[in-house]
Amino acid sequence: xxxxxxxxxxxxxxxxxLLRQENRAATTVARIKGFTIRQISAEEAEQIKAVAKRxxxxxx
Length: 60
Known about the structure:
The protein is an all-alpha fold. It has two helices and no strands. It has one domain (9-59). Helix content is 68%, strand content 0%.
């Protein structure tokens, strides 16, 4: 059977795609693990909300 008449990707293409996805998942997990959750005060939360409201009102 010729390559043009095959309906599925050749085996090596599937393998490379799986390796690419695995690498992408590993790098994404490593990047996300670097983030930390920062605790903020109620006052800081109110300031963030006020800035967000101003930003939304300017764009609408």
